[in-house]
Amino acid sequence: MKHRPQVGRTTSAELFGELVRQLRTRAGLTQDQLATALPVDRSLIGHIEAGKRRPDPAHVEVFDGLLDAGGLLVEMCGKADWYTTHPAHPDWFKKRAEMDAKAVALRVWQTQLVPGLLQTPDYARALLAREEPDADRVEAGVLARLSRQERFLEPDGPALRVVLDECALHATVGNAWVMRKQCAHLLNVPRTANVVIQVLPGHQARPARPTTSLWLITLPQGREVLYSESVDRGHFIHDPAAVRSAGRVYDDLRAEALTAGASAALISDAMEGFAQDEHPRTQRGHMAQEQLQRQQRRRVHRGSPRIPRRRSRP
């Protein structure tokens, strides 16, 4: 079957993926064979060739050698823009994704939910599945969200400062297992020096909490933009006075939030709570099984012949 070129705009990431596909085909290798050489799952090769996933630099070097590319893949991977607007982003969000690709710093106040830049794949999948019944579209949305994260989670990525309302740690998305893994991810992310996560405890009355999440995006040359969301819309505010006012609100929230260390302890407590939520379900399963076995023993006992017992005389 001949490969059909895509219609419309082609990104540099897609061009890199197409180059990998052509070199792999020329070498007579299948995606499975290329995946086995790393080793990785075959789906990762498919995502790379589709321009949907940035490959690990070490993997690119393996590709380059196996496919006899003479350094071309390594060079092209370094030039590709992996952070441009992903096709799976909704139209109203694409401008925000473009800003994320350029931002030099990001300050976030997040309520209700863990922000997309810090979500695990399972958390994002469970969240997107609430609104989207099509499994393929959900997976495309998860990939789009993960593609935005990569730049911020690199060791030398843009500064990411997040103040998280404690309620976001307790609002269950998916199930207890998903939430426990999400909490563990929040504890692991700050190992990169550019990411700081602080939690504002729920019992704390001051400062007044904005009811919606806020993102203060610092672009090159120091220009700042305020971004917020309604149900299905993104709102950008460029007015310097409004941006400064939002900055003061964020600074107050961060000043009253727990330190990064104390926040990690609170996240650990939430994670343990979700682990306990899983345990009772296991206990209930065991209890139900034991009850069933008791019922079965009763039925066997009732159906068996009665043998008179000799009683000892006094």
From the alpha-carbon coordinates, what is the Rg to the nearest angstrom?
A: 26 Å
Q: Examine the secondary-structure arrangement and name the CATH architecture of the largest domain.
A: 2-Layer Sandwich
The counted number of beta strands is 6
Number of helices: 12
Kindly identify the CATH topology of the largest domain: Endonuclease, Chain A
Notable traits:
single chain, 314 residues, alpha/beta, 434 Repressor (Amino-terminal Domain), Endonuclease, Chain A, 2 domains, globular, disordered N terminus, disordered C terminus
TL;DR of this structure?
The protein is of the alpha/beta class and 314 residues long. It is built from twelve helices and six strands.
Characterization of this structure:
This protein has 314 residues and is an alpha/beta fold. Helix content is 52%, strand content 11%. It folds into 2 domains: 12-79, lambda repressor-like DNA-binding domains (434 Repressor (Amino-terminal Domain), Orthogonal Bundle), CATH 1.10.260; 91-271, 2-Layer Sandwich (Endonuclease, Chain A), CATH 3.30.870. It is built from 12 helices and 6 strands. A 6-stranded mixed sheet has the order 3-2-1-4-5-6, with helices on both faces. Helix 7 (121-129) crosses helix 8. It is globular, with a radius of gyration of 26 Å. 26% of the residues are buried.
